[in-house]
Fold these 4 entries.
Entry 1:
Amino acid sequence: MDPLKQRCCESASAGDNGGVTSGATSRVTRNDVAAGARGTSGDSELSGASYDASGSPGANLPALRGHNAALVLGLLRAAGERGVSRLELAAATGLTPQAVSKITARLRADGLADEAGRRASTGGKPPTVLRLVPGARHAIGLHLERDELTAVLADLAGDPVAVRRAPLAFEDGADRVLTTVEREVAALRDGAGGPPVLGVGVACPGPLDHTAGVLHRVTGAPQWDGFPLRDALADRLGLPVVLDKDTNAAALGLAQGIRVRGTGEGVGADEHTGTEEAGGADDGRGLPPGSGSFAYLHLGTGLGAGLVLGGGLYRGRRTGAGEFGHQVVQLDGPECGCGKRGCIEALCLTAVVRGDLAEAARLLGVGAANLVELLDIDRVLLGGRTVLDHPEGFADGVARVLADHARIRGGSAVPVMLAPGGARAVADGAAQLVLAPLFGPRHPALAASREAVG
Ligand SMILES: [Zn+2]
């Protein structure tokens, strides 16, 4: 029994990734977005009775059903523009060529894959190459911060097609926040010409119950305690919704190794209300495959961590893992919004407010070193608005503490880097809450065969 494996959610079996809120006979497959999603009758292909009945977001999309289809879809995504032949798919998945042909026929019938010419012959008949059609379906990622909403429309490859930002007052409570979200999601979809949307991933400050889709006592916004945000949003939006912590969404996106095109920052739009057209060349900022175990530390208006252990997102049994900011590092220290004293979040944010960034970075480094000591992770990634305001200062400050830690303990220091994706890392990752389960699990053997294929 490996408890970590049990709770790794990237593979998204229903038990790992939360429950489906309705449906009598959950025919749960590994590619269930439904995992923690709740659908309603609406205009999504994944919503309505068939979604609820099967527990699968792909209920109306036969091509998205089943573990093997997810594996094939994952290989198509990994191969990118170059594409992959049916024989290569068979070799990489261990499926028979006939089974692969059946799956790819269904994917093509649903418009998810198409033929991309023929590969140069190495003797026999040149094989036909298939590739993913990224624009065939989309997912929406929402990042609800205490004072701002970021909404991303991502294609199947995880690339952003459109981005919007709007002011948000999280402490104003549910009704006003839901109204803002509804308006921005509608504008996002309209602005992109109303493409088919599979579902909505919502990332917000923790703590929360990912499985039930319910918020807990968010520091500074206690009125949200117990609010069923997932179901309320599913009702408003008419789409399946998955709820997770901001830190988990970002970590999932990073674990997927998504490659974000363009910076998406301030491109042709007002900072707070406009629509940004994401574009530009692929800058390859995604993490390399097989990045193993890492911690994503998010310092914005709060402080939290997303943990990827052995390649999978670790949420914990009650999906409460990663409350990094509320570890006590100073007994009887200053009061924290959570009710305790001496939390690292309170100390760190206080240092930021008084302009002592070196001290804030040092505190973040101490927390990072504690994580390294506990979990033996491979790297530390930094993100969140406060870090991005002073990226070098935080990266250097944390690196210094980790170097000191390594010197005392022996061995080399765990590397620190800014998380790829910049200010959009959480919103992009939120879209992955919907997309990742469609593409099958990533385990080392498959990753290796993908590289052989790609
Ligand atoms: Zn606290």
Entry 2:
Amino acid sequence: MQSFVLRLLFILSANVWTLCVSQWMHSITLDPHNKYHLKWYFDDHKQRITFNVVVETTGWVGFGISPNGGMAGSDLVIGWVDDNGVTHFHDRYAEEEELPTIDDSQDWHLLESGHNGSHIWLTFTRVFITCDTETDLSITSDITKLIWAYSHHKPSSPVAMPQHKALNRGHRNVHLLSIPGHDFDNKNNETIEKWDITSSNLLIPNNTDTTYWCKIVIAPFTSKIHVIRLTFVFIFIVYELKIEPIISPATNAPFVHHMVLYRCLHPNSSYMDQYASHDGANCVDFANMPYDFIHCQSVYMV
Ligand SMILES: *[C@@H]1O[C@H](CO)[C@@H](O)[C@H](O)[C@H]1NC(C)=O
Ligand SMILES: *[C@@H]1O[C@H](CO)[C@@H](O)[C@H](O)[C@H]1NC(C)=O
Ligand SMILES: *[C@@H]1O[C@H](CO)[C@@H](O)[C@H](O)[C@H]1NC(C)=O
Ligand SMILES: *[C@@H]1O[C@H](CO)[C@@H](O)[C@H](O)[C@H]1NC(C)=O
């Protein structure tokens, strides 16, 4: 009997331990006023992702994923701690720009929550792909459009919520399922060639929100190979000035929205070699882009 109790205790404490040492893989601030912090990690085998939000508010907090950055069609959660210290948390769906309805199937699960007079924090988890195809969106290895919002007012009930102020909301494009500092696990000591694709020094124009920049690079291989990892810096970059505020001034990362690698299928491929040293061009400015760039339209990697 005694040994059973001891074992049970051990298992319990092992579980607590696992929760405590879980390494957050990513940590970002979602709003420009440094009030909305997000951390997350995921488990590929369990197909599960866990988020932690810490927000400087005593009202409600909303977080979710959007098909296009807007609220309509978004799969989201809203949580708050009421005056009795009880946390309310629901998996919801926003049909329109209105109070999102509570899903019949609750697939985002609250793990932990708390508040301290100035901040509220919520830790919650869900599987990448839920069975709720009506009101949940899948989490994929693509870029995910996260939406966030908060209000300083506490709802009186889950269906009577004060709206967020226009400023206390936003969206952010994030590669949720990226592995920080991921390195290929090379068990067989195969020879790996690394191909670093870098842009020339590009001064991002200041007269437009979004810049599309294209540059030709010569691939160091000609036949089909197994590409393990590509370190790229810029190839086809989309730069969004207003939507993505400078978060980490030390690096250019926040400016890069996404990159696409295209294959150039010029009938005479050596003809493209002359562009290897070309600085690149604004991809939407056809007048100034070398004509041969039109041969590069076969998407290779996003
Ligand atoms: C409340 O929690 C936030 C987030 O963890 C923390 O930054 C802040 O210092 C805390 N405030 C107090 C008074 O403990
Ligand atoms: C792989 O290479 C490393 C360093 O070159 C070496 O220490 C290790 O023993 C090698 N492993 C195998 C399986 O050959
Ligand atoms: C915008 O860029 C141009 C040249 O690219 C520069 O002359 C100008 O000072 C810049 N304006 C601001 C506000 O940075
Ligand atoms: C292909 O392009 C290269 C470089 O411009 C040129 O030297 C060569 O003659 C071209 N080959 C053919 C078959 O047109």
Entry 3:
Amino acid sequence: MKQFEISSEGGAATHSETGTRRLAVNAAFLRDIKDDNQDLKMLLDQITPITRHPQTAANHWPELITLMSDLRDQLALHFSLEEAYGYFDDAVDSSPQLSVTAEVLRSEHPFLFAAIRDLSDQVSEVCSDRPEEVNHFIEQLDSFRRVFEKHEENELELILDSLDDDLGVGD
Ligand SMILES: [Fe+2]
């Protein structure tokens, strides 16, 4: 089964030889984007109970198709906002370690988006009266959610580390 493993291989983190510019985060903006994204939270809150049990999912399949397409669109917006306002090139200040983490996390967006786009395509191809297809889809979705939640967690950690770095706290 295909898992949505995110790897930094080939990511922008390997391109630090391009000079002194470093990728940094606008910690306040990035945090605002996450806090303000009520639509994304609402969608995930609607999808979670429906997909907790395969039979429930099967009973709500047309609704799930709509929700998955809404989730794809929301994530497209979410990643674009983060990339437009949450990350920036910093010529001077940011620490090399934070910059590497920022590069890795930003480079996960295309993989995450490709995964949710595939899922929103797949959901409409599933025969909801075939339990094995429903189960398979739910496993794929759960796997995506774990990777996405980890990504979000790591970005929140990066926000905190960047704030500490600005304040001169920590190592
Ligand atoms: Fe992100």
Entry 4:
Amino acid sequence: MTESATMAGCPLCGGRKERVLFEEASAVLRMRIVRCGDCGFMFQNPRVSELMLEDAHAEFTEYERYPALQEAKQRLYEPRIRRILTSFFPQRPGRFLDFGAGYGAMLQAFRQARPDWELVGVEPSARAGLALSGQGFEIRTSIEELATCGGAPFDWINLDNVLEHLDDPVGSLSALRNLLARDGIVFIEVPNESFFRLRYRLNDWVRGSSKAPTFPGHLNLFTPRTLRRAAGLAGFRVTELRGVSAAEPGRMEALFGIEPAGRLLAILRLLRWTRLDHLIGMTYFTQCILQPLEVPSPVPGPGRKSSSGGPGRQG
Ligand SMILES: [Zn+2]
């Protein structure tokens, strides 16, 4: 076990003990991933430089604009929207916030499913924001801007592959809780990093070369356990938590814009049939639904900034 001095405390507990899980400082890759010695949370420390992140985001948002990908995302989101609305908001209209709205696939799918809901997006990318405004959506660039605009509390706040990008995930969730109705929900999907070490070793073995074990923008590496902990610290209870397989119908199309074929299709079919990834807790994503605790818990904790910042890009 390697103990090393930290530049910043753990984003969850403020702890300053850490163990290095991955470290590379080459010309092509600069990344250091640690696990908190107190709570077990995995995160990048130091964080990737702003410049590198902006490059990665620019590349990704370019890719995000492909219409085929947007359509595949909408097809993936439609059944999710229907399921959650039926469970939590049957019949009645409400207010929906997509935090990290990207190019609007979720907002579009929502508008089609329930035109009676009021829809708002938070998107820090100027280019994506412009595209969203062009589609007629109300768009803000940060939680702070959203908070100053007033308006009724939100009934559903959506963070789809966003929380792992945020500098202060607990602070951001906490700030969002203040914008949520008492009977409102927060839906979160994050990559499941429970098998982080195994995955990067498998990747290396398959490729025959070393590659970054996660996206540069993935500052926080959540497991179901640490996701629960972050939710609790931000004043939420976890109403539902489940693993979602990479073999979920439409998932590959929505992630990569590809129609699975050949060896990949065979693996996905095997997973769908056996549910092996569910059985061993190695599903690719974790989804959860949070509801506010009756009594808000005090945040921020030790060493945590009060600023919540804007969302990262989906990735
Ligand atoms: Zn910690």
